[in-house]
Amino acid sequence: MTTLPSMFARRSDTLLAFLFGLCLAGCSTIATFDKVAYDKATGAKAEALTLMDKATDSYSSRAKDAEAVQLSIDKAYEYDRGRALNSITVKQWEILRDPNGHLFGGFVRRWREKGTLRPAYIEEKKPDIAEAFDQIIQLEIGKRPASTSN
């Protein structure tokens, strides 16, 4: 036989679970789509891939170009860092920018250290770096639109 207090305890647990689920359904766990973030990411991708083609030139002759592209990437990163519920995108930017990694940051570091890069190496790295940008861009596209209220 079920006692009155245990019956209320089960109902209370059920009610709490229902309210928690309702709260989760109404709360977003990821930022909404942001056109500025999308534009920054697509622009930085185009600039980065164009710069990579110039890595057969000496780094010193293209240092200003490299710094300009890195600044575009840094601006996109900082913009996304300032958005709420955007930790996944921020982590993706950090991986892309990491000078000790194997994506854009590492590519630029290697170019600076070596002076010039072989065309075969550049062509090998471009798809990886393009894919990293595409993941950031696709994540942004996949975010739900911000609700508009009239």
Summarize the structure.
74% of the residues lie in helices and 0% in strands. It has six helices and no strands. The protein has helices spanning 4-26, 35-53, 59-81, 87-97, 104-114, 119-142.
Which radius of gyration do the C-alpha atoms yield? 23 Å
* Quaternary assembly: single chain
Share of helix, binned? over 70%
What do the pLDDT scores average to? 86
Describe the overall structure.
- This protein is mainly α.
- It has one domain.
- It is 74% helix and 0% strand.
- The protein is built from 6 helices and no strands.
- The protein has helices spanning 4-26, 35-53, 59-81, 87-97, 104-114, 119-142.
- The longest helix has 24 residues, at 119-142.
- The protein starts with a helix and ends in an 8-residue tail after the last helix.
List the helices and strands and how they pair.
Layout: H1 4-26, H2 35-53, H3 59-81, H4 87-97, H5 104-114, H6 119-142
Helix pairs in contact: 2-3, 2-6, 3-4, 3-5, 4-6
Notable characteristics:
mainly alpha, 150 residues, single chain
